Amino acid sequence: MTELTYESTLRELATDQGVLRYHEAGQGPPLLLLHGSGPGVTGWRNYRGNLATFAEHFRCLVLEFPGFGVSDPTGQHPMAAANGAVIRFLDGLGLQQVDVIGNSMGGIVGTQVALAHPDRIRRLVTIGGMGRNIFSPSPGEGIKLLMEFTEEPTRERLIQWLHSMVYDPALVTEELIEERWAPATEPETLAAARRMYGKAAFAAGQKAAAKSDAPPYWAMLHKLKARTLITWGRDDRVSPVDMALLPMRTIPDVEVHVFPNCGHWVMIEQKAAWESVVLAFLTRKDER
């Protein structure tokens, strides 16, 4: 296989709400990979280490959500923009049904799309972040550190947040810090982040949710049709593992795999083990 570089895999899709950028590699059934949130995040940074493995089996499509500095911004709250972007992306590529892997926010977006459009998602894999806190405080430590960085974006706060993402502190290298710092402090991207994680915006979102008559997505998981695999790091300090209990109990067709000595970035910190579990799930023949 040709080396999978940023440049060789980067693609663009023009839509009525701006250009969606994505990375494409491999051939076979379509596999949509959705990234999480946080300073300097992109789909490429989330999944570049896993692309080669999955590209041997799937046509991998790593979508860059609007509001994170790669795809054109929409001006919407990044979470709201993401759901619409997924459907515009699938329609733009003429894809009726895909498998989805979603990290944290990406897992929530994938779940919401699967609930709203059950015919579009065949199998769903989530990495942390899905569900709601049962025993642990909410928001978790990593979310609080993310809010602190968003309010006051300093290098020290970025490093503190990065350490909350992993079990092994050796993963927080100077290279990682530098790679995240520049895009995280770009004015437009930072403004979008503040719509999600600024303290005032976060509090307003929680207040609005409490007053809303619309049920939260986690209360509708019993309606999820997609066969689902929930993956989690046992030592996740962003989304504590007890969050998996509600979706584990309520999703009709669900499996859960918890990885030891692992934080929020399961696909990075337990790369080989995680890839093995996910590939087995996605390639298993349907029994129905």
UniProtKB/TrEMBL annotation:
Keywords recorded for this protein, A-Z: Hydrolase
Alphabetical list of InterPro entries matching this protein: AB_hydrolase_1, AB_hydrolase_fold, AB_hydrolase_sf, Epox_hydrolase-like
Domain AB hydrolase-1 intervals: 29-269
Organism encoding this protein: Microbispora catharanthi
Annotated protein name in UniProt: Alpha/beta fold hydrolase
Keyword Hydrolase: yes
Top-level taxon of the source organism: Bacteria
GO molecular function, one term: monoacylglycerol lipase activity
